[in-house]
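Appendix C: a fully annotated inverse folding record. The material below is reproduced so that readers can follow the format used throughout the book. The structure is listed first as tokens, followed by the designed sequence.
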């Protein structure tokens, strides 16, 4: 994480429909005192649900809940609801956690081991609509040993299992009597976390108030509002006007605050990548020669320089180049001549208009990106421009996710993915054939037996050398037949009022803004003065 101080002055203007109270976002105090007790953050999207049983907070940093473990600023695991890191026995097949004493849910009821068992059993239940349940595939059984011990038995030693237990724990006495898919718990949650949901106006804002009885100590920030502002430009405008204390912004808009005083910019490295899905069933995008040619045609370096203003890295696969699991032999530069040669050899011949065709079918497909996302729009347009140089016509269209989702199995999408913690976390759901077309899992419907074998080996062996070899093989297979065109890994940019001290960021996943950014640990913030 790097921090840059910003100069100048921004007016505090009260706007109609502001996500905070009656004055500028932090309250009326000008000295960082009272104003530091309330924070309004602008983010591009809201969760579909606030229930961990359906996936909310599964990677940690939930404002309402805690997991058995959590991650610190350096992404190392630390105890949360558990007193200590787990005791691991039986060759890595048994994990035992002892719960912290005296923890209560926000409704005053005590946390017990039965709540942990209920949480994991419900997530794993086939009737629960949690598309991330494959992440807990290793669990054979979870049981309570008294009120304060939880024992997980695994089907196979899973090297990354402890990191999975950042999953938030929910109260059985509240959620147990409801359908996890439709119950009120999804919008009226109860947890052990530092904040309690005070209100949720769908599409507008979520408001949280501090939990005074939080086991980690009552937060100094008493009120947190997440304002939902999908359009990047509008979010920047509202931040500049004083309607927001902070916001997640694309790099080019974050840069416009360089002359504003009283704000800081935070830059967080991430596993978050932008890629074009190339659905296997699409007669053009699913053709291996087309996929290889597009992979060679794209100018990733220019995308980083021009679209991200240098705040990112070229993506040669799903793992960033600075990740220890990254295979060093897969980096590749733009090579239009080779791209054209691949298409020529596969029978895709250029027509008079420069667009190739094979057996009467033009090399043409549609690429969707979500409306209002300027970064994805710019990636999509740059991708189409590079593709056309190789003779592939990519038609770029914007749409809402409601329009895009039914088309994902057949049309290309400018998508974003990326998970922190372990290569298994992001790669298995992205690529394994058993998850093809399962919601946002394996959106390309990618089916490669060599990749499946590598994923299974990486998940089931504890030997670091065997895991490294498996993930190296996987990355090389993606060069031979890429079901996605990987473009860039994005550094996340945040601008925030300078009223708190010693703020940090973590290395972040794709999902950011809501639980990431400098406010990942807002419960620990202290006023600057």
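Designed amino acids, in order:
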């Amino acid at each position: 994480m790097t921090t840059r101080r910003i100069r100048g002055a921004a007016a505090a203007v009260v706007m109609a429909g502001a996500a905070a109270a009656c004055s500028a976002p932090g309250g009326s105090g000008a000295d960082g005192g009272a104003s530091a007790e309330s924070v309004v953050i602008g983010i591009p999207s809201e969760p579909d649900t606030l229930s961990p049983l359906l996936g909310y907070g599964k990677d940690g940093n939930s404002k309402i809940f805690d997991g058995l473990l959590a991650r610190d600023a350096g992404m190392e695991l630390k105890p949360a609801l558990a007193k200590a890191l787990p005791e691991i026995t039986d060759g890595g097949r048994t994990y035992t956690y002892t719960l912290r004493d005296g923890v209560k849910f926000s409704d005053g009821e005590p946390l017990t081991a039965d709540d942990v068992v209920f949480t994991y059993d419900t997530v794993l239940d086939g009737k629960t609509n949690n598309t991330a349940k494959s992440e807990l595939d290793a669990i054979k059984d979870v049981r309570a040993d008294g009120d304060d011990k939880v024992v997980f038995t695994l089907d196979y030693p899973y090297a990354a299992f402890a990191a999975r237990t950042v999953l938030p724990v929910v109260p059985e006495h509240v959620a147990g009597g409801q359908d996890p898919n439709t119950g009120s718990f999804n919008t009226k949650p109860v947890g052990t976390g530092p904040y309690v949901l005070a209100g949720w106006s769908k599409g507008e804002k979520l408001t949280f108030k501090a939990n005074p009885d939080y086991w980690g100590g009552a937060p100094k920030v008493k009120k947190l509002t997440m304002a939902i502002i999908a359009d990047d430009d509008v979010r920047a405008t509202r931040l500049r006007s004083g309607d927001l204390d902070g916001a997640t912004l694309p790099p080019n808009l974050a840069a416009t605050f360089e002359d504003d005083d009283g704000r800081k910019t935070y830059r967080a490295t991430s596993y978050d990548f932008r890629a074009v899905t190339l659905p296997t069933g699409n007669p053009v995008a699913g053709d291996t020669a087309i996929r290889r040619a597009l992979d060679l045609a794209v100018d990733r370096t220019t995308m980083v320089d021009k679209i991200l203003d240098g705040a990112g890295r070229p993506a040669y696969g799903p793992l960033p180049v600075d990740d220890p699991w990254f295979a060093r032999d897969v980096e590749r530069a733009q090579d239009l001549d080779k791209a054209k040669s691949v298409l020529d050899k596969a029978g895709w011949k250029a027509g008079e208009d420069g667009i190739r065709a094979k057996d009467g079918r033009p090399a043409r497909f549609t690429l969707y990106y979500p409306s209002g996302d300027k970064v994805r729009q710019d990636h999509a347009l740059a991708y189409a421009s590079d593709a056309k140089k190789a003779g592939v016509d990519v038609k770029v269209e914007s749409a809402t996710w409601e329009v895009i989702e039914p088309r994902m199995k057949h049309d290309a999408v400018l998508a974003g993915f990326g998970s922190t913690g372990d290569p298994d976390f992001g790669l298995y759901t992205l690529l394994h054939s058993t998850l093809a077309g399962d919601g946002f899992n394996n959106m390309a419907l990618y089916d490669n037996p060599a990749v499946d074998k590598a994923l299974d080996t990486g998940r089931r062996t504890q030997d670091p050398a065997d895991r490294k070899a498996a993930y190296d093989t996987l990355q090389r297979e993606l060069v031979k037949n890429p079901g996605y065109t990987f473009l860039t890994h994005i550094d996340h940019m945040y601008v925030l009022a300078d009223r708190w001290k010693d703020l940090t960021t973590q290395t972040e996943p794709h999902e950011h803004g809501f639980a990431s950014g400098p406010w990942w640990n807002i419960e620990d913030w202290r006023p600057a003065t």
